[in-house]
């Protein structure tokens, strides 16, 4: 039976006018409902020296106390500590993972400081890639651990970026969305701050560091993103303590010479950071991570494994090999499961047998005991009978 | 339960694992703004929906599409026009972009004129299965590429509406064969076509008999019972499952009834209003397909049917993408034989799970 399929080319896409209400304007709501019940994942990486205020800032940003002890300065190397939390606001469930760089900037020789960070980020991409390449995969309930935003904490020296900062940011800019922030900004005076910011931005540009660009192609957010970008890097102050200001309690840091209010835009850029990071661009950060950084990693990794899209000779073999390997892995797993189940079954049977043998032994013993008692009784009765007979 | 039949939609309510303690927030942070961000992104990207209608000629498929989307999706072939019945089964696709209140929808409808019209209808489902699998293959090839597009164009069939002729008796062998093969590969929604030839009692009886037929032959139509997420879904979907197949009437002409302009069919004995629940169940079909379950249809197609296809395909280690213009891979047998792979496994698993369900 012949099949003729008429496929339209793209030019034939017609715009059709509707003569009544069809009802698919509820589509965005349907989509949002699905995402809400699924929950969201957001992973933040905080890179900065020990004691620069990373944990305090996270506590302030998310208005909660993530339990953590301050790190020591004696770490032999940089290691990454990841902790996950579940936050809920109205009907939105957020699975937040905060990754801390413990021991960053503490060593005498900081040559290799960036390596554990890059390895961690790559490891998350690798985990996702492995899941995606699996034969039987479950991407829809995969817990996404890829880093969506990297907050780089710059020390408030007031001069310029440290060379460690430049080197680290250069290594990270193609792997993650970098948002540079100036930490402990209450130690810098206002006029110094302005010069400091311009110096940092010009250094980033001249060194070719690609930081995260707030998206300006969407009319709804273009304006706010554009105005906020001017204030990069954000000078933030973090605090979880509340101080009475006027007749309200507000998060602030109290000094003998005054009170630095965290949420006062004249005092620091904390509100701007919260707006940009959470309220306006969270989804864009996640999308950039998936469509740009992850795709780049995937492309590099697959090319490394020897695949090419356009060369017909090498690709069939290598991709076939990979999928052969995956298939064998899959079959191997199935076999392993089968073995496990069989072994468990055999073990259970053995256990049951042993139990039954025990019970049988007990029964035998009981039987013997009863037999003996019975015999004794019988003997007693016979003796008594003899006695009685003798008496008679 | 066989992993192939796992709950597909991403709505699995994940309990918080011991490693992720729930945290109390002492004030408003603004996390819920992410919902608006999602909405904006979705509206900008637009949506896609691919629907296929299958049934014999003259059952009102094209009219139904026009009624569903309130526009001239297809030019209807009126009887009497010189339009010869196609000698072979043809699949015709047309794509439109429709917009409503700022939401853009790229709608692709596939019609199957010639289905079931021949004298010998043996294996008439093969071209349809082949087409559906071809779309899955296309998507798979795009997904395997090294340099992928940002947004892979989705041409996979999300929903197949099957038109059952209103005989009033029960499902015919052709219907049963087709539904059995297709419900493993795509979401199938059966409807009773031209329901204005049946009275309300006849409709109910016909519906019960069809439901009985579906159960006897283990045909799982959309919404599938095994994909219900939680108790709310189950309640909602049970109500829908009770009314499947919907008895529908299609019309694209407007008439004046009691001063209102309604879509309907005018006959000598009255005007059948399409959107009146007392006359026919078209509103139920429209609500199911468009207003409430459209996203769910797409999710099940992506997470279940496409994944099943992918597992089968990759297990046959003949995955040889030869570059951007994909080549028809000879070792792969045509459509239907790919389907029985998961069908058999699924059928077995479903029988097991049916037993399990009975135990519960």
From TrEMBL, chain A:
GO CC annotations, alphabetized: cell projection; cytoskeleton
Primary site of residence: other
InterPro entries for this protein: G_SEPTIN_dom, P-loop_NTPase, Septin
Pfam family, one: Septin
Subcellular location: Cell projection; Cytoplasm, Cytoskeleton
Domain Septin-type G, chain residue ranges per copy: 38-304
Coiled-coil boundaries: 320-391
A GO MF label: GTP binding
Keywords: Cell projection, Coiled coil, Cytoplasm, Cytoskeleton, GTP-binding, Nucleotide-binding
Entry's family note: Belongs to the TRAFAC class TrmE-Era-EngA-EngB-Septin-like GTPase superfamily. Septin GTPase family.
Stated role: Filament-forming cytoskeletal GTPase.
SUBUNIT field: Septins polymerize into heterooligomeric protein complexes that form filaments.
UniProt name for this protein: Septin
Naturally occurring in which organism (per UniProt): Lynx canadensis
UniProtKB/TrEMBL annotation, chain B:
GO molecular function: GTP binding
Compartment list: Cytoplasm, Cytoskeleton
GO cellular component: cytoskeleton
Principal subcellular localisation of the protein: cytoplasm
Pfam family, one: Septin
Biased composition (Low complexity): 7-17
SUPFAM superfamilies with a match to the protein in the record: P-loop containing nucleoside triphosphate hydrolases
InterPro entries recorded: G_SEPTIN_dom (IPR030379), P-loop_NTPase (IPR027417), Septin (IPR016491), Septin3 (IPR008114)
Keyword Transmembrane helix: no
Function as written in the Swiss-Prot or TrEMBL entry: Filament-forming cytoskeletal GTPase.
Family to which this protein belongs: Belongs to the TRAFAC class TrmE-Era-EngA-EngB-Septin-like GTPase superfamily. Septin GTPase family.
The protein's name: Septin
Organism: Lynx pardinus (Iberian lynx)
């Amino acid at each position: 039976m012949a099949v003729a399929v008429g496929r339209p080319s793209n030019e034939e896409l017609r715009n059709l006018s509707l003569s009544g209400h069809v009802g698919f304007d509820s589509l965005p709501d349907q989509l949002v409902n699905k995402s809400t019940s699924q929950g969201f994942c957001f992973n933040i990486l905080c890179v900065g020296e020990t004691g620069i205020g990373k944990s305090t800032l996270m506590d302030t940003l998310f208005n909660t106390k993530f339990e953590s002890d301050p790190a020591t300065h004696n770490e032999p190397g940089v290691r990454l500590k990841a902790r996950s939390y579940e936050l809920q606001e109205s009907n939105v469930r957020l699975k937040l993972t905060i990754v801390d760089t413990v021991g960053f900037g503490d060593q005498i020789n900081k040559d290799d400081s960036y390596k554990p960070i890059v390895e961690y980020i790559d490891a998350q991409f690798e985990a996702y890639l492995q899941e995606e390449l699996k034969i039987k995969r479950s991407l829809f309930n995969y817990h996404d651990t890829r880093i969506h935003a990297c907050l780089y904490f710059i020390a408030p020296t007031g001069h310029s970026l440290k060379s460690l900062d430049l080197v680290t940011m250069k290594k990270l800019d193609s792997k993650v969305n970098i948002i540079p922030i100036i930490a402990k900004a209450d130690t810098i005076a206002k006029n110094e701050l302005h010069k400091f910011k311009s110096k940092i931005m010009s250094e980033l540009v001249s060194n070719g560091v690609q930081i995260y660009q707030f998206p300006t192609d969407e009319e709804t957010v273009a304006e706010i993103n554009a105005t906020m970008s001017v204030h990069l890097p954000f000078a933030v102050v973090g605090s979880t303590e509340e101080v009475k200001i006027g007749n309200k309690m507000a998060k602030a840091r109290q000094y003998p010479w005054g009170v630095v209010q965290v949420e006062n835009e004249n005092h620091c850029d904390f509100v701007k950071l919260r707006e940009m990071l959470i309220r306006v661009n969270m989804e864009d950060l996640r999308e950039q991570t998936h469509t740009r950084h992850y795709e780049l990693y995937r492309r590099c990794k697959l090319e490394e494994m020897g695949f090419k899209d356009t060369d017909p000779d090498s690709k069939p073999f290598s991709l076939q090999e990979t999928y052969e390997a995956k298939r064998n892995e899959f079959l191997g797993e199935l076999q392993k499961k089968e073995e496990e189940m069989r072994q468990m079954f055999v073990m259970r049977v053995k256990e049951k047998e042993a139990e039954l043998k025990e019970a049988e032994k007990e029964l035998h013993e009981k039987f013997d005991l009863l037999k003996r008692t019975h015999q004794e009784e019988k003997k007693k009765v016979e003796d008594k009978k003899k006695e009685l007979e003798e008496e008679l | 339960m066989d992993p192939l039949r796992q709950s597909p939609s991403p709505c699995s309510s994940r309990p918080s694992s011991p490693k992720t303690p729930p945290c109390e927030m002492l004030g408003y942070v603004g996390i819920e703004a992410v919902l608006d961000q999602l909405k904006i992104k979705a509206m900008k990207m637009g949506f896609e929906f691919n629907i296929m209608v299958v049934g014999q000629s003259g059952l009102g498929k094209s009219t139904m599409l026009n009624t569903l989307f309130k526009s001239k999706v297809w030019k209807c072939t009126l009887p009497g026009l010189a339009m010869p019945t196609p000698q072979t089964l043809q699949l015709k696709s047309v794509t439109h972009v429709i917009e409503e209140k700022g939401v853009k929808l790229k709608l692709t409808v596939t019609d199957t004129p010639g289905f079931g019209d021949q004298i010998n209808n043996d294996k008439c489902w093969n071209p349809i299965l082949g087409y559906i699998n071809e779309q899955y293959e296309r998507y798979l090839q795009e997904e395997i590429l090294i340099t992928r597009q940002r947004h892979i164009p989705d041409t996979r069939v999300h929903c197949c509406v099957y038109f059952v002729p209103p005989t009033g008796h029960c499902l015919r062998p052709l219907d049963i064969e087709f539904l059995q093969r297709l419900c493993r590969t795509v979401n199938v929604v059966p409807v009773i076509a031209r329901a204005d030839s049946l009275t309300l009692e006849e409709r109910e009886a016909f519906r019960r008999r069809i439901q009985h037929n579906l159960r006897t032959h283990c045909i799982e139509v959309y919404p599938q019972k095994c994909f219900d997420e939680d108790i709310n879904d189950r309640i909602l979907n049970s109500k829908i499952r009770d009314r499947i197949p919907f008895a529908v009437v299609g019309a694209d002409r407007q008439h004046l009834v009691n001063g209102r302009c309604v879509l309907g069919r005018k006959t000598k004995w009255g005007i059948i209003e399409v959107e009146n629940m007392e006359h026919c169940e078209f509103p139920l079909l429209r609500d199911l397909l468009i207003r409430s379950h459209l996203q769910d249809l797409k999710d099940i197609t992506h997470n279940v049917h496409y994944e099943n296809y992918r597992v089968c395909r990759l297990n046959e280690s003949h995955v040889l993408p030869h570059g951007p213009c994909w080549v028809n891979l000879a070792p792969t047998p045509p459509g239907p034989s790919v389907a029985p792979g998961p069908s058999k496994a699924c059928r077995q698993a479903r029988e097991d799970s049916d037993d399990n369900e009975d135990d519960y």
